[in-house]
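ingest -> validate -> predict -> emit
validate: passed (alphabet ok, no gaps, 194 aa)
predict: started
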Amino acid sequence: MPEIGEIRKAKEIGYKGGYNFTWHACISCGKGRWVIIYKGKPRSLRCHACANRTLSKEARNKAGEAQRGERHHHWKGGRKHFGGGYIQILLQPDDFFYPMAGKGRYVLEHRLVMAKSLGRCLQSWEIVNHRNKKLNEQGEKDNSFNNLQLTTRSQHDGISQMERKIDKLLQKQEELMREIRLLRFENKELRERV
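emit:
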């Protein structure tokens, strides 16, 4: 066990970088831990748990709000890509459609477009179906109102099943059309030989 005040390089204690660390006891609970040395002194006097306890709830909320949304250095406009061509939109707590948002304050864009066109929040059991399944150049689904339809779970399952059957039939039709073209070509060659 290291002694209080002992100084070591980061690599000696399993950290990355070339910084010096000192074994320092928390001034609140007395728990020892390695702390980076900054300008000849330990960077923090308290451990994380005690430092968080000493901050008031108001100060913690204020610090969190200062880094939220447009004020955050990684802000990208409140739009993020979700798998399968879906887009999520960040909603603020004062937004009329905020009840539709999940834990992260995001809502799927196609649900938001449908809700805005209806002028009300969508219920969790209401499903917004994309009529055209194709993705645009950016790899996003077409979320224009004309491409969306509001359904229930059972209707959506039926629509999805029918779309799969139609896709299979179109694929089979394409195969048969290729086969017909090939047979016509072979037929033409046989007639020319006779």
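Strands lie at 7-9, 20-25, 32-38, 41-42, 79-81, 87-90, 106-108, 127-130, 148-151.
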